[in-house]
Amino acid sequence: MNRLAKFIMALIGLPLSISHPMAAEMTESRQDHERIRQIASEYLLQLSTAQPGVADISVGPVDSRLNLSECQALVPFLPTGSKAWGKTTVGVRCTAPSAWTIYLRANVQITAEYYVAAHSLTKGQVLAIDDLSKIKGEISNLPVGFINNPDQAIGRAIQISVSSGTLLRLDSLKNPAVIQQGQSVRVISRGNGFEVTTDAQAITNASEGQIAKAKTANGVTLSGVAKAGGIIEISN
């Protein structure tokens, strides 16, 4: 074969020798599935810091059949109706260079301390530390408002009778009444440079800071802020 023929064949073969690298450069990069799971897990861990205790987080795998384009900024989020603990769903969204969204199953278990009734409690009973029993366990399935600090319960009155071991909740407690219906009270009316005190009889129950009503001996109904010691304050 002469030199000219070899030269022509070399020219013809040149594009073939460089076609594969060029095609590789033009192939779009694919998103790493484990990175998606990592982003979702870190997001759920961040949300769990709002809860007391220690979180154990597991995020399900991405469907291996999904071929997602590589994302420059992965944004995790909770879909509407999902919660940040227990069995839940977490979403991961990509907006650039290509838009896509994926949803992953997850389980967030949080172990922390909470309080139950140490023994039977009767309605209206003002709680003391001996009335509380501390439990350590999974809280992700507990109802909202459970007691996780004894200071949330001590000195407050329980609104319903409960048996030993019953979970204590904030919505079952209230501040004890400092004014009782039928009680003799002192109504103090204060204004700019004056103070008037009147004896009366309470016609409502009230905790400290609530509005209480009382009736004087001549039948006048007064209302003011309930204070400890059987006092109702009226500010003018």
From TrEMBL:
InterPro entries: Flagellar_FlgA, FlgA_N, SAF, SAF_FlgA. Involved in the assembly process of the P-ring formation. It may associate with FlgF on the rod constituting a structure essential for the P-ring assembly or may act as a modulator protein for the P-ring assembly. It comes from Undibacterium jejuense. GO terms for biological process: bacterial-type flagellum assembly. Its main location: periplasm. This is Flagella basal body P-ring formation protein FlgA. It is found in: Periplasm. Residues 1-23 form the signal peptide. It holds the Pfam family ChapFlgA_N. NCBIfam families: flgA_cterm (TIGR03170). Residues 112-174 form the SAF domain. Belongs to the FlgA family. Gene3D superfamilies: 2.30.30.760, Antifreeze-like/N-acetylneuraminic acid synthase C-terminal domain. The gene is flgA. Keywords: Bacterial flagellum biogenesis, Cell projection, Cilium, Flagellum, Periplasm, Signal. It comes from the Bacteria. GO terms for cellular component: periplasmic space.
